[in-house]
Write a structure and sequence with these properties.
Layout (H helix, E strand, L loop, with lengths): L5 H10 L2 H8 L8 H7 L4 E7 L6 E7 L5 E5 L2 E5 L21 E8 L4 E11 L3 E12 L10 E3 L8 E3 L4 H8 L3 E8 L2 E8 L6 E4 L2 E5 L8 H8 L2 E7 L6 E12 L5 E13 L5 E3 L14
Antiparallel strand pairs: 1-2, 1-5, 3-4, 4-7, 5-6, 6-7, 8-17, 9-16, 10-11, 10-14, 12-13, 13-16, 14-15, 15-16
InterPro entries: Pyridox_Oxase_N, Split_barrel_FMN-bd
Protein name: Pyridoxamine 5'-phosphate oxidase family protein
Organism: Streptomyces argyrophylli
Amino acid sequence: MGVFHAGSRALQDQTGVRGRADHVGRSLGQDIKPVAAAFLEQQPLLVVGAADPGTGRVWASALTGAPGFVRATGPRRIAVDADTAGWVRSTTTDPQPDDGPPRVGTIALDPRTRRRMRLNGRLHSTATGFTVEADQVFSNCPRHIQRRESYETVDRTPGTPRHLTELGDGEAGFIRSADTFFLATVHGAGADASHRGGNPGFVEVTSPRELTWPDYPGNAMFLSLGNLRTDPRAGLLFLDWETGTTLQLTGEARTEFAPDGARTVRFTLTEAVCTQAALPLRWSAPEYSPANPDTAR
């Protein structure tokens, strides 16, 4: 398979950016360069997206550890030393699909430097966590990443996960106040985890089972939206950067185009999981990206 599948190509053609996408797509490879390996070893947070082999639902999950818990162990392999018990139906403990190891997407985002790295590939369980054999490795620009200058590790006891089929007032408020979330998507030959950011209010809760967000112009590759065009399953992860609370959503998403070409993604909820104090990290207050459009109404 080439860099882009049919879903991504269709959107590139629809928006007239195929040439630019081909140029940017040259940055996608399988090798983990030394600068990327060094970046990974500095991170205390990794987000992983995958489809649950049991239910088919797509989830985005957060894993944390002391810097070095994620590291490159080969030119095309990362190892993650982490207790995956916090995953919702972790792919590391579920039966493997018939066509081999589970496909996962990962993203490491550093708010301190506004840098991010994505690595997609196949997951293999280990005694201390898992490895991922890379199919795609690439970085994105810092656009829409909020800067958080520092973090501290705090002693927290995660609450019991609450499973919901509708968003209550608390969950809706959590989403409306968010400046960042992570999006997991899948396609026939892989999975992907990406970042979405904006000023608080950029994600709208339109009903207890539906929310929307604008798709801001980006790198023109349309990896996530291309996946959604061919497979609407999606997982969203919102996190509270101060308290460590996480809100995971799984459902389906579709892209809507306005007459002026503006894009909105509409997500319909199947299930939500809210976990108080799930992550042991407390980050400093954000400095919003200057690229964020104003969300004031």
